[in-house]
Amino acid sequence: MKARNYSLKKLLLVTLLGTSFFTWGITALVSYREIRHEVYSLFDNELAGSARVIHAFVESLLHDGSLYENWDLDTGMAVLEHEDIPFQYRNKVAFQIWMIGEGLILRTKNAPQYPLSNKRNGLSRIRINRELWDVFALTGRDKDGDAKYIIYVAQLDKIREELADNVSTMVIVQFLFGMPILGVAIWYIVGSSLKSVNRLAWQLKRRDAGRLTPLSSRKLPTEIVPLIEAMNDLFTRLAQSFENERRFIADASHELRTPLAGLLAQTQVALKTQQEEMRTPALEKIEQAVHRMTHMVQQLLVLSRIDSDESLVEKQPTDLNQEVIQVISDLDFSAHNKQIEIELFNNNSHLIYGNVQLISVMIRNIIDNAIRYTPTGGHIEVSINAEQTLVTLCVEDSGPGIPKDMRKQVLQRFFRRVETASTTKGSGLGLSIVTRIASIHQASLYLDRSALGGLKVLLVFPQMQVQHAA
After folding, report:
1. 252-283 b/e (C-beta count within 10 Å ≥ 16 → b)
2. Is 201 inside any structural domain?
3. Worst-scoring range by mean pLDDT, 93-97, 114-118, 411-415?
4. Sign (positive/negative) of CA torsion 23, 25, 27, 30?
5. CATH number at residue 157
6. Is residue 324 part of a domain?
7. Helix 195-206 to helix 157-193 angle, to the nearest 10 degrees?
8. Who has greater pLDDT, 20 or 67?
9. Residue 467 to residue 32: CA distance in whole angstroms
10. pLDDT at residue number 87
């Protein structure tokens, strides 16, 4: 099943808004419970404080002996009324004073004529006329520690509920009004943050297929810069790949045009002539042209392969000496036909880190060039040496060599010296391939005059460090 695409903007909006709603909802619920708890604690403390104030007042009257002057117990209890006081909760707060053994001596109008609580100290709850009251009781004692009177201060529980509901309503209203504002803010912030992505997509959409110039990372979030850098790196590699492809096609068409024209001419000669002495040389030249084109195509394919993507070249520990021996063995027939002697010196194992196939192609091109340009009966010396962290491969021949002022030119593609182009078969790609493979393996290539009179090719590789077991 094909995976469906999703909108990053919608995902951010849904996630952020959902998280905000959930977080704010949980916070509101916790706040509501905490508010109710704090409100009840506050009012309980107020009840206790009021009881202590009344207790201090009664104790003061008792100390002065004026309690009975203010309240005549013989005429019954006193009822407090304060209708003229504009107090919001005046009918929702009540208190009583009970004298032990004498009964109720003082109460508010809304307090009943029976005790507000069966407790003498502390908090309790009582239902009066179907309404719930919170009561705090405080017992006053004489000098001997005996109970003398009880003070009851009561508060209608509805007060607490109303205050808690009012505060909670404020929290809910803030939530209801705040969430749309937060939603709009999140929508605007997410949209503004993704404008850079939309702008980048718009730039890419407007680009032509052949425009591989790097994208600008100015005024972009730092999180998008790695993406821009990766895309620019991809553009660079694509541009290099396209350039290699164009160069390969141009090189192939340029270099194959001449041998194909010669091949066509010789074929026409062979088809038209009836004389064997003319047909045979024409067919031989056709064969030579086919061999030359085959060799050139092989060289072009190798060059195209190593130019396509250097990062795809797999490397491993490679015995340079073993590869040299294998190449000499493969080319022994060509050397034998020209009576050329090939000597190998310092036949020891030396490890380098490289691609076996490319190392073999490089060695083959160097030794094959030496065989091609060394005259019949000549001599070739191959040596391998290791010094500290370097491994050197040296190939010397007794051929014509290369003048010092032309040694850089022969490393270019399809460059061939006029002096040897007519006498020696070749495509002019051998040393350019050697240069490219050496670069891939961080090796250095040097051309010099050989002690044998011809060309000296020196390759210097970094030696692979072998870790010995302790």
Report:
1. eeebbeebeebbeebeebbeeeeeeeebeebe
2. no
3. 411-415
4. negative
5. 3.30.450
6. yes
7. 20
8. 20
9. 70
10. 47
DSSP state of 376: T
pLDDT of amino acid 106: 81
Are 60 and 88 found together in one domain? yes
Boundary-marking domain end, from 312, 329, 360:
312
422-433 pLDDT per residue, tens: 445 545 566 777
469 has a pLDDT exceeding 50? no
> Looking at residue 317, which CATH number applies to its domain?
3.30.565.10
- Out of 151, 169, 187, a domain closes at 169
Residues 57 and 38 in one domain: yes
CB 333 within 8 A of CB 293: no
Residue 3 lies in a domain: no
> What's the predicted TM-score (pTM) here?
0.44
Instruction: Round to whole Å and give the CA distance between 167 and 162.
Output: 9
Name the β-bridge partners of 392: 385, 460
Distance CA 336, CA 439 (A): 32
- Count of domains for the chain: 3
What is the chain's mean pLDDT, rounded? 76
pLDDT at 85: 46
Q: How far is CA 440 from CA 125, 210, 228, 238, 366, in A?
A: 92, 28, 27, 19, 17
Kindly state whether residue 1 falls inside one of the protein's structural domains: no
Backbone angles phi, psi at 462, to 5 degrees: -75, 130
* pLDDT tens readout for residues 92-104: 778 888 888 778 8
| CA nearest to 398, candidates 344, 357, 362, 452 | 452
Print the domain residue range for 358.
313-470
Same domain membership, residue 454 and residue 370: yes
Percent of the residues in the chain that have a pLDDT greater than 70, as a whole number? 77
Report which secondary-structure segment, H or E, holds 76. Answer: none
Q: How far is 286 from 465, CA to CA, in rounded Å?
A: 51
Beta-strand pair 390-397/379-387: antiparallel
